[in-house]
Write a structure and sequence with these properties.
- This protein is an alpha/beta fold.
- The chain has 18 helices and twelve strands.
- A seven-stranded mixed beta sheet has the order 9-8-7-6-10-11-12, with helices on both faces. A five-stranded mixed beta sheet has the order 1-2-4-3-5.
- The structure holds NADPH dihydro-nicotinamide-adenine-dinucleotide phosphate.
Length: about 450
């Protein structure tokens, strides 16, 4: 289990202690920071500059936190208020980059954990992108298109003064898809009178990249495939359970099915479906992207499938491979143990921090394969980086060109994580390898740039 007790280095302990005092009410952020700090112990001990320059103390503190009021008018004429956030965590290796999440569970702790993870993820992609994240406690679910538009316009009216193509480039995340990005881009353009690549995940007609929609799910499967193959295994004929049914989950289903797997369960926040014949991603796409409906309506298309109310039970469905693609802390220790008891050989994270520390400890104790989110879901932001390149060049690359680059990047990330783990005496520990490989580049840039 990842606890403070497992960190012995006095410098790391003092940073963590200070962090806990200052951020006592931010459990998700503390969880993410502690997990990274633990992995960095051998790195900090091997190079005294990190302590001398207080790199760890600086990397856990965001460069800037912006919180703002987002007033908007609902269809009934009532004035609503939500809270907006943008955390600009680290710009050592490039402009801040990271998605916007619109979900009622959003608070500063959630945005800080996501922004912190983003620093290392973006570094792993090898592209020049710093770490940031933002969002709001606004819930797009059940809102009309007009309400979503008015909210997005109000959100961008404030956010626009803090972002820019060379400063901070937001993208989508939970609750922020093509519709929301379009409304926000339109408002940015109107206010700033400039057409730039200030957001990624844009529509194809106005600067979006082919394969960006598919990128996180496809990238997850490219990463998992590389890790499986490195361990003499593959997706072929494997039963796969995927949580969520949003952007990441849908395209993870498509790609792992192409790679020979069979997706037998998927979920949303209400419940999960089981179809032993394999869940058709096209039907899920229709339900979620077109109809914006609930996953249980899958049974209208495939009456032989089963629906179970409550999403946590999905991890009790026996499978070979688990791809958590919904949200943070969705697999706790008990769910991890249920997966392992049912013969699961690997958990590859599509969502950000979907496994609790107890779940990760259970994977490690059982010796199953584990791919941490900051490495395995980096395909989305990597392709956002490719969208930024295309916008700068004023060119659009073909789907195959972007997809091939994505595959190369994901295989490269796996190799970098595996090599870093081995170098620091933790062969096969891709979790530690991801934290170390992601950290080294950012820390080096911080050392060069001074205090
Ligand atoms: P979407 O909004 O498209 O889909 C989210 C899915 O997860 C929905 O099925 C949703 O169900 C479910 N979900 C959300 N919150 C909860 C919850 N609290 N409990 C149970 N289920 C929940 O989001 P994405 O697919 O974009 O994002 C999924 C995860 O992947 C997130 O952790 C995100 O940070 C991460 N990610 C996304 C990237 C991207 O490119 N989109 C890139 C990298 C990471 P419901 O519809 O019922 O709310």
């Amino acid at each position: 289990m990842l606890t403070t007790m497992s960190i012995k280095n006095a410098y790391l302990l003092s940073v963590l202690d200070d962090l806990k005092k200052k951020n006592a009410h931010e459990p998700e952020f503390l969880q993410a920071a502690e997990e990274v700090l633990e992995s960095l112990e051998p790195v900090v001990e091997a190079d005294p500059r990190y302590e001398a320059q207080n790199i760890i103390g600086r990397i856990v503190e965001p460069e800037r936190v912006i919180m703002f009021r987002v007033p908007w008018v609902d269809d009934g004429g009532k004035v609503q208020v939500n809270r907006g956030y943008r955390v600009q965590f680290n710009s050592a290796i490039g402009p801040y980059k990271g998605g916007l999440r619109f979900h009622p569970s959003v608070n500063l702790s959630v945005i800080k954990f996501l922004g912190f993870e983003q620093i290392f993820k973006n570094s792993l992609t090898t592209l020049p992108m710093g770490g940031g994240k933002g969002g709001s406690d606004f819930d797009p679910k059940g809102k009309s298109d007009s309400e979503v538009m008015r909210f997005c316009q109000s959100f961008m009216t404030e956010l626009q003064r803090h972002i820019g193509p060379d400063t901070d480039v937001p993208a989508g995340d939970i609750g922020v898809g093509a519709r929301e990005i379009g409304f926000m881009f339109g408002q940015y353009k109107k206010i700033r009178d400039e057409f730039t690549g200030v957001l990624t995940g844009k529509g194809l007609s106005y600067g979006g990249s082919l394969a960006r929609t598919e990128a996180t799910g496809f990238g997850l499967c490219y990463f998992a495939d590389a890790q499986l193959k490195d361990n003499g295994k593959s997706f072929q004929d494997k039963k796969v359970v995927i949580s969520g049914s949003g952007n990441v989950a849908i395209y993870a289903n498509q790609k792992c099915t192409q790679l020979g797997g069979r997706v037998i369960a998927m979920s949303d926040s209400n419940g999960y479906i089981v179809d032993e014949n394999g869940i058709d991603f096209k039907i899920v796409k229709e339900i979620k992207e077109v109809k914006r409906d609930r996953i249980k309506t899958y049974l209208n298309y495939v009456p032989s499938a089963k629906y179970v109310e409550g999403c946590a039970g999905i991890w009790t469905v026996p499978c070979d491979i688990a791809l958590p693609c919904a949200t943070q802390n969705e697999i706790d220790e008990n769910s991890a143990k249920a997966l392992i008891a049912n013969g699961c050989i690997g958990v590859f994270e599509g969502a950000n921090m979907p496994s609790t520390p107890g779940a990760i400890a259970a994977y490690q104790a059982a010796g199953i394969l584990f791919a941490p989110a900051k490495a395995s879901n980096a395909g989305g932001v990597a392709t956002s980086g490719l969208e930024m390149s295309q916008n700068s060049e004023r060119l659009s690359w073909s789907f195959d060109e972007v997809d091939a680059k994505l595959k190369g990047i994901m295989e490269g990330i796996y190799a970098a994580c595996a090599a870093a783990a081995e170098k620091y005496g933790m062969k096969g520990n891709i979790q530690a390898g991801a934290n170390i490989a992601g950290f080294l580049k950012v820390a080096d840039a911080m050392l060069w740039q001074g205090i």
